[in-house]
């Protein structure tokens, strides 16, 4: 599959704009790989729109001690029935590891748990090294990985561009690998 034909949607929720800003930065980076993404706010997105895309990049911040950003929370009942067997999903989550170190990017874990039985293939797991926190619902593999990219605009904003760039390269290559495997399997 050439990159031109990867239909890519970035869907985010936000309270104060950071997660939207990261959606824009991810979209800019994707252009380096000839991928033009559509960007949607989850508050204006219907469940049907999820199936329009081959690659879904979903962004969610955590609020109020492990709470789910409001527009994603409103979408909860629509998440569980989604059939995403043809889709590849990459998650990113925003949080504050020093301010909320017992709940760091918890909402990304919530989103992962709601979608992990949707049939989608997940890409973009991300190492927890380089972050300092006590607990997070978004970790896998004995705490070695996050289920997606963790971004901390409050405490580590200076690391964000490099993280976004590396992660975008990772998800593009993992998506390519998945597409090759699918083609081989017929
Ligand atoms: C009142 C308040 C509660 C927060 N609760 C959490 C939390 O439980 N876990 C976390 O990782 N970050 C928490 N944060 C940090 C936000 O997730 C972070 O600022 C994020 O960048 C906001 O994204 P947004 O601008 O897209 O809404 C909290 C921030 C505030 C101000």
UniProtKB/TrEMBL annotation:
Gene3D superfamilies: 3.40.50.360. The lineage of its organism: Bacteria, Pseudomonadati, Pseudomonadota, Gammaproteobacteria, Oceanospirillales. It comes from the Bacteria. It comes from Oceanobacter antarcticus. This is Flavodoxin. Pfam families: Flavodoxin_1. Low-potential electron donor to a number of redox enzymes. Its cofactor is FMN. The keyword Flavoprotein applies.
């Amino acid at each position: 599959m050439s990159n031109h034909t990867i239909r890519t949607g970035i869907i985010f929720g936000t309270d104060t704009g950071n997660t939207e800003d990261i959606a824009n930065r991810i979209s800019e980076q994707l252009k380096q790989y000839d991928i033009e993404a559509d960007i949607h706010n989850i508050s204006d997105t219907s469940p049907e729109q999820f199936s329009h895309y081959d690659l879904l990049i979903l962004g969610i911040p955590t609020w109020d001690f492990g709470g789910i950003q409001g527009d994603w929370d409103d979408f909860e009942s629509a998440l569980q029935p989604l059939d995403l067997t043809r889709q590849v999903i990459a998650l990113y989550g925003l949080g504050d590891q020093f301010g909320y170190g017992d709940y760091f990017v918890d909402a990304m874990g919530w989103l992962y748990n709601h979608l992990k039985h949707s049939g989608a293939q997940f890409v973009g797991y991300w190492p927890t090294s380089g972050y300092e926190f006590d607990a997070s619902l978004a970790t896998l593999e004995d705490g070695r990985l996050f289920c997606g990219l963790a971004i901390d605009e409050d405490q580590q904003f200076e690391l964000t561009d490099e993280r976004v760039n590396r992660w975008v390269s990772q998800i593009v290559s993992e998506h390519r690998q998945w597409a090759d495997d699918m083609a081989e399997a017929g």
